[in-house]
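Final paragraph of the annual report: two paired records, presented back to back.
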Amino acid sequence: MSTPPLILLLSGSLRTGSSNESVLRTAQAVAPAHVRTVLHAGPAALPHFNPDDDTDPLPAPVAELRAAIGAAAAVLICTPEYAGTLPGSFKNLLDWTVGGTEICDKPVAWVNAAAAGRGRGAEATLRTVLGYTGADIVESACVNVPVDRGTVGPDGVITDEGVREELRAVLARLLAPR
């Protein structure tokens, strides 16, 4: 019996209970039984990127991040936009992936949870940085799903069935053979 594919979920927000975290918790909740998901602890534990430190042995949080990416069949990102781009802490996380090969050719997508017309700067930066890493951006799985905070339950999971269905479709597209 084969091991179910694993999707690594990366939140670009450090805020507990952020809309971005809610999107990823909801993706976990709606994932089919044959798919495993892991929500990464996030960028807070990572040291500031320094190319001098991008050598063996890697700082433990960086080694753990790269191992998690390496073990995943695909990566799903949900990040806010700050000042027209990615939050610095999430850009730092991505910077740590450039020196490794774990994300190269790995299917990657993102969900933009911002209100309509917002978040485009973060998307553009994601596209640029992921291009440098060699990630395989799954365009059909990169979607805008604005989150109404009123539809987030006390468990941090979105109750809106339309959003839940869109996230199910994102997971399916992310793992679909290409």
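The closing record of the year follows.
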Amino acid sequence: MRRTIPSATGNSVMPTYWQAFAPLVLFTFVASVTPGPNNMMLASSGLTHGFRKTIPHMLGVALGFVVMVVLLGLGLGSLFEHAPWFYVALKYASAAYLLWLAWKIAMSSSTPDANGRGQPITFLQAVGFQWVNPKAWVMAVGIIAAYVPKEGFFFNLAIAGLICGLVNFPSVALWAGFGAGMRRWLHRPLLLKSFNYTMALLLVASLYPLAFETASH
């Protein structure tokens, strides 16, 4: 027997969970695989530390985003409605933190970490980073508002969180793999430094939506 999900109006049904959540799969993939703070950092980490040492970072990104989606869906977003100053403070703290990360990437080692030196971002640091990542906030709010069926909301929220994790992890892993794959080509200090500068600039550029939102107010 196929399971169905009532529509918001209650007058029709969606035949399967897959049909209900297929748009979410597409949205999560596109949003996860396109450039953003997480992906710039993962590419740089893959280059500097290698793919294997970047796995905790990748897992932290995927799980951290799932936790964000679920907690926002459970009502954390109402905090911003009652305390808008907290949202503003978080927004500027996020921008400052991302600028600091961009500087760290630009100033990172001039040679790939082939001998195991250096400290890549840990699992818990990657989980926590999602809460200061503007792109993650936009994705999470958009998913809850547009892609989680309201009928049976909490169960659907759990399904949506699972989908986000399953789609997000391989998407961000592509960027870590890209960085790791570049190790053989960027062994020269000047080329490596140019790559890190590019990643840092793209990380700063990812703040554009935040700056646009501020200007519009």
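The first strand starts at residue 5 and ends at 6. This concludes the annual technical report; the extension proposal builds directly on these records.
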